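Example record

The entry below shows one chain as it appears in the dataset: sequence first, then structure tokens.
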Amino acid sequence: MALIDETGLYLTLSPEFGGTRFGPFEGLEVRLGTEGERCHIVLPEAFGVAREHCKLIRQGDGGLILAASERTAAVFVWKGDARRATQIQSPTSVRSGDSFALVSPEGAKFQIEVARLPEEVLLKRNPKRRRNNLTAEKFAQEGWRLFLARIWTLGPFALVMRGWYMITSGAILQPRIIIPLIIASVGYIGAAGSSCAAIKFKSDVLKAEETLGECEQRAGLSVGGGGGLATKGPRDLVAMILGSSYLAAALQNQDELQQQVERELTDVFASRQQYGWLFDEGGAAGSEWVAWRERVQKSEEFDPVTKALLPFASAMPKRTREEWNVQLDVRNRRTCMRGPARLTYRQGRSLGLAALQLDGYRGDDTLGFVDDEAGRFELLKLTALGANEGLPDPAPQVEQAQLASGREFCLYGTGEDDRTSAAKVLKALERHLGITAAAVPETSQNEAGIARIVKLYAADVPGNIYEDNPTPRLDFRNGMAAPLKEEESKDSIVSRTAEVIARSVALPCIAALEAPDTVEATFGRKVDPVTCLVLEYKLRNKK
């Protein structure tokens, strides 16, 4: 124990993150995260770090244990001179000289150092180690006494004593004293006002310079800066904005999906006016979506990545105030989507919604459509055939909903449709996309969240039924690449999934840059606008 008593733990950030050396830490545990009250080292939320991300524990024999504080907090370790990092899955033994990074291998990286405590710290612990202790104290006491004796004889203090005498004696209440005091007071008040204005101006300038410097430093743009956000690639910036190291690790292994996400991000940033419905204060479409997002995020059946991504599946461009929208399905056909989650008929059938009404898309390009009852049944029949079904007998009464464009319609059979019930849709999604869902990876795996979004769109593949089917045609438990390899809808499923990821990042960023007061209420989380600016800049200037 003597060795531990005289040594402290130091953690040093790598040069690209500023090279700051933290310590010495003398306790048995050092915590890192964004929560100032719980953590010894507090990191910005923009790094994607959890409130308490990890902890380093000193043992009685001098050993060190590194552990993630939360199951979803990613920690990567370099032992000795290792060139590649290893993500720890359980508490791991480390030693002085090892390094670790948070969120991703490119995240905030610390080097561990155990070194002797500074001499002044050891002296405070053991006063007997001091030399000439009494002599130094006496010198200090005598110096202080002489200082006090001298200061009371200086001019300003003498003036104070003189003023006090004039007040207590009444000598101050004379015209020859009062008139000069009034003249002097007016001058001092004017001078004080000018000084205050100058001080405030200087304070505002310094504050602006400090804010600008902080933004430049975080963005990695300051002169001589050691990196920062400017050194991050789009994949890591996306993960930082979403606050998910799992997403960064998953995209790292999915090159095609990662490239598609970057293309979709560019499109969303460039077409932000198509999402005006989401930022229209008091708008019905935006309010309905926010209510759906809150339902999903309050559910205890979804993992964090699925909670963050799933609501954006229905945050499509030009979402209407009605319960209908039209979008390309996985076969690249314009298809009607219904309800708060905007599900197609095939998705509803695959997810096990009990009551469903056939629908059909009618537009100017609908071939062979005749505006009569028989023609309407033909459009419903196309949807039924796409789901390997036939028209119900007797055939339903058909109505139509006109969409915002005025030239597109959704025809549908009248009657109860569970797609319009947020509660019923949520239960179906919890069964098939939740923590214990079948045909998807366990939530401890990096691809778990993305695979669940892929599964949602794979539910639109004809014949791929999930409800009451332990072996669906597309099974993603061992990854996403193999099941989609031979699937003709692969490109559409990847594209739809990339759209969801892109919206979950770009839409909160648009709000953070244009209406920052609305971000938390609309999206349920805070977003760093500087990280968003850097991401949009990198996407716009990518070669």
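Notes for this example: The longest strand covers residues 109-116. The chain has three domains: 2-125, 129-215, 234-320+439-540.
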